[in-house]
Write a structure and sequence with these properties.
The protein is mainly alpha-helical and 278 residues long. Helices cover 72% and strands 0% of the residues. It contains 14 helices and no strands. This is Carbohydrate ABC transporter permease. Keywords: Cell membrane, Membrane, Transmembrane, Transmembrane helix, Transport. It is a multi-pass membrane protein.
Length: 278
């Protein structure tokens, strides 16, 4: 029975990993080999598209052209770095104190305000797009990277994740620090942040995965294509661009994969903490 379960789980795991294997195989194929497989899709040829997980003639030409002969790729790469770093830094500076305040202090209208936070967290980008556009346009930030960074920095989702971790800190520990003469600032810096580091790391991992793959926000707020992030690289793919598109997809995937693997334990803790009802 266990062998049957392992076989079934292995099949599902292979199906889940197939898109990644598809990208790896395509990035190692030449233009002619890819054209033979994908012409029914990309060139509206006859028949059905087929594909091999092991290239007949492996080549690294697509990676060489992408990394050595595509300066626009590196411009978009550094745009992604700046956008992602700016948003995550803003979420730390804004979200961590906000989550601590919601978790440890009682103030008027606390529950209604937190409910508003949860409501905003569940709203898709299309709901807040117009209001963000009007505010950013009024501030003169349209067509700058700040137009993407500022709305992301004030995201409510990291507050929700970190809030769950901060509420798990025993009140007796905080009270003992107050009795010893520690101020609220010291308690937050030397107790709250270290004890809630799991929630902070979990929020940063989820934030990186979201920011690294932003598509709608740059398309809405950035008209200058020189400011576009890497997630918008090669939006129109034909047979000639297919090898570069496969290689670019693999390179874009690597940072997110490393961040996910490095923060997997924190991510699991954040999911468990977010699932606990108040």
């Amino acid at each position: 029975m266990k062998k049957v379960i392992f076989v079934i789980l292995g099949i599902f795991a292979l199906l889940a990993a197939y898109p990644v294997l598809f990208l790896l195989a395509g990035s190692l194929m030449g233009k002619q080999e890819l054209a033979g497989y994908l012409s029914p899709v990309l060139a509206k040829g006859e028949g059905y598209a087929t594909f091999r997980l092991f290239p007949m003639y492996p080549t690294l030409r697509a990676y060489v052209e992408l990394l050595l002969d595509s300066p626009g790729y590196f411009v978009m790469f550094w745009n992604s770095i700046r956008v992602t770093a700016g948003i995550l830094l803003g979420q730390i500076l804004v979200g961590v104190p906000a989550a601590w305040a919601f978790a440890r202090y009682d103030f008027p209208l606390k529950k209604p305000v937190f409910t508003v936070y949860i409501t905003l967290m569940m709203m898709p980008f299309q709901v807040t797009m117009l209001s963000n556009y009007l505010v950013l346009d009024r501030l003169g930030l349209m067509d700058t990277l700040w137009a993407v960074i500022l709305p992301g920095a004030f995201s409510t989702f990291p507050v929700f994740i970190m809030y769950r971790f901060f509420t798990g800190i025993p009140e007796a520990v905080v009270e003992s620090a107050r009795i010893d003469g520690a101020g609220e600032g010291k308690i937050f810096l030397y107790m709250g942040i270290p004890l809630g580091s799991g929630g902070i790391c979990s929020a940063l991992v989820l934030g990186f995965l979201e920011c690294w793959n932003l598509i709608e926000q740059p398309l809405t707020f950035l008209k200058n294509k020189e400011l576009w992030p890497l997630s918008l690289y090669l939006p129109d793919i034909g047979l000639l661009e297919a090898p570069g598109a496969f290689a670019a997809s693999v390179v874009v995937l690597l940072p997110a994969l490393f961040i996910f693997l490095g923060g997997q334990d924190y991510l699991e803790q954040g999911i468990v903490a977010a699932a606990v009802k108040e």
